[in-house]
Design goal:
With 386 residues, the protein is mainly alpha-helical. The protein has helices at 10-21, 31-44, 50-76, 99-108, 117-121, 135-151, 155-158, 170-173, 189-196, 201-217, 237-243, 256-271, 280-304, 314-319, 321-332, 338-350, 370-376, 378-385, and strands spanning 89-93, 112-113, 225-229, 248-253, 309-313.
Length: 386
Amino acid sequence: MNLKPHSINYRELIKKASKLTNLKDFGDPLHLNGLEKLCYSLQEEAQLNTIGKIAQHSRLSGILINRLRFQKDLKDYPEIKKELIASPVVIIGLPRTGSTMTHRLLSADSNHTSMFWWEGRNPSRFPKEKRGQPLERIKSGKEEVGALLSASPDLMKIHPMDAMAPDEEILLIEHSFFSTVPESFMYVPSYSKWIENQDHTNAYKYLKLLLQYLQWQMPNRSKKTWILKTPHHMGFVEIILKVFSGAKIIQTHRDPLDTIPSYCSMVTSLAQPLSNNLNPELIGKHWEKKLSRVMKHCMKIADQNPTKFLDIDYKELIKNPIKQMENVYNFIGKTFTNQSEKEMKNWMEANTQHKHGQHQYSSANYGLSDEIIKRDFKDYINTYIN
């Protein structure tokens, strides 16, 4: 196969997306600042191999095309902005703390709705796609997941991937170019530093608008409660509480001695196909420090808004998930019905723990030690773990 490397230039990407769609309106121009910063970091810092350059060129092109198509639908169907996203349930927590399990258990209830993975990658309708008939986007999502798992076969042991399953709306936030997605599988230090110093309010307003768009596409969602989830939200939970009226926060907890190296292993698995110059110790240092900062921020916001937060311990979740879900329903003011319990148990039967094999990892592989993690997460461990 003859693969031709691509230059990742933001002006060329914008020009190409406009040419392919015959559209020019990308929405809020502020978001394109993030694209420029990201393209610089990808081109100058990420040390991408040929496959990595082609993959990121394609990914960014797809995001820009989604933005163009979304803006067209917003113009043609202004009622999209009238869709109500009422009192969503937002699941946060350090990666590998049971947040995915909590997310998918709650999403199993037919009274709830979540973003599917295929929607996150292509939230905008394809040309000539009729409302409520996203067959080509579903097909595209399945093909992409298949390719991703072929490139990183161990990924299913770490984070079960399924185009048709609920997944993290960080994929939607990525469309604002204000997300942690790039640094989750590439070395982009200048971009990472830049987004940490930005106001993410507009990014979350854009997320809400995209959720309204997804709801408009499938009107049966309008009477359901949205279940949102991504660790990314921990750094911006105060913005969520402002942008999403009535939001309730579910925070999952697990010993960071287990979660931090596990997440570093996931990042490494995602990054391996894209670069020939991986440095696991650099990955470990970056994410241990970043997640420590994010958690301290989240703890501060939780202290200021105690009635908005419910804590779930990972061990208790694994031991008795239904009991934990009952606690969630009490917290959000909903009745935990027999039907809700049945749907969740059906999901658990089809998704047993370690179904795809057990994930193996070690702190030492990433230049970390128990002492470093205990030091940086001392307050968190004392508050939620001990």
